[in-house]
Write a structure and sequence with these properties.
With about 300 residues, the protein is an alpha+beta fold. The protein contains nine helices and seven strands; from the N terminus they run H-E-H-H-H-E-E-E-H-E-H-E-E-H-H-H. The chain folds into two domains: about 200 residues, Gcn5-related N-acetyltransferase (GNAT) (Aminopeptidase, 3-Layer(aba) Sandwich); about 80 residues. Strand 4, helix 5 and strand 5 form a beta-alpha-beta unit. The protein is elongated, with a radius of gyration of 33 Å.
């Protein structure tokens, strides 16, 4: 898919989320979000300890603490991005992409769904959205989701999104329900995708504002140009007298095949001309020898 097709796919109108009055949407975390996150973190702090890192005592947070969390998230080095997920004006979850290991081309997801919004498929949607961004926009080579072995809900989420087990490992316990035994789920970037930012696609593309109508117009224009080029190739082939079998059509560039065919025709003409010249030279030589013999 082209960048325009990727962007349009991200914008596509979605139906209302089941049991809600609006669709699930996402946006990047901003500085002002500390205001809306403070009451959420205070209420659900114990549920999201793994997401909040060192802020394990989130129930007693003040605005200043939440503000620091937001600032640290925004100032984190590449490849770190945090997104808010909301339905209408209600924040339902957070999702972050964070570095995995020592490679900047591999990322892991850290996500949290708040309170009454759990158990409604939102975690699966958050992971699916961030995996799409990781592969299609950024071009990361691998996407990881680290799950505690006792966290059945997260295991089901990872598997539902097509992630498979990479390896297991042991780590210290951070929360009451953790076992210290972890499973690393992962997915590789599918082959055949258009270049992402890490493959050289311009990051500036994502800094510009475009309407849905403009994106669709660009896609249709590009498709029309591609069809026109195919027609031109066919016409050129016919003018040059090139005909290919179905197998050759799949493997040979029509332009190159037509040129090669023309080269063959030119070479045959040259061979014919050379033979005629040789015959003329031979006739001239024979005539001179006969004249010389008569004089003797």
């Amino acid at each position: 898919m082209s960048l325009e097709e990727v962007e349009l796919q991200l914008r596509v109108n979605k139906p209302n989320w089941p049991s809600y009055r609006g669709p699930l949407q996402m946006r990047l975390l901003t500085k002002s979000d500390a205001v809306v996150l403070t009451p959420i973190f205070k209420k659900h702090g114990n549920e999201i300890r793994s997401y909040l890192g060192t802020f394990h005592n989130a129930r007693h947070w003040s605005f200043r603490d939440a503000n620091k969390f937001v600032q640290d998230s925004l100032n984190a080095d590449f490849p770190s991005f945090t997104y808010l997920f909301h339905i209408e004006n209600e924040i339902v979850g957070l999702g972050s992409l964070a570095p995995y290991g020592n490679s900047v081309t591999e990322v892991q997801i850290i996500l949290a769904v708040f309170g009454r919004h759990q158990g409604k498929g939102i975690a699966k949607a958050i992971e699916k959205s961030l995996m799409y961004l990781s592969f299609n926009v950024w071009g990361f080579s691998a996407f990881y989701h680290l799950v505690d072995a006792s966290n059945i809900a997260s295991i089901k989420t990872a598997e539902a999104n097509g992630l498979t087990v990479s390896h297991t490992f042991t780590d210290k316990i951070h929360a009451e329900k953790e076992t210290g035994e972890w499973i690393a789920y992962f997915a590789k970037r599918p082959e055949g995708l258009e270049d992402g930012v890490l493959q050289g696609a311009p990051i500036s593309y994502w800094h510009e504002s475009r309407s849905d109508q403009l994106l669709q117009a660009v896609i249709e224009a590009r498709e029309g140009k591609r069809e026109l080029q195919d027609e031109e190739v066919e016409e050129i082939g016919e003018l040059l007298g090139f005909e290919a079998s179905e197998e050759e059509t799949e493997q040979v560039n029509p332009f190159q095949a037509a040129i090669d065919n023309k080269k063959g025709a030119d070479q045959a003409a040259l061979n014919k001309l050379a033979a005629r010249v040789n015959r003329n030279l031979y006739s001239q030589s024979l005539s001179e020898r006969r004249k010389k013999k008569r004089k003797e």
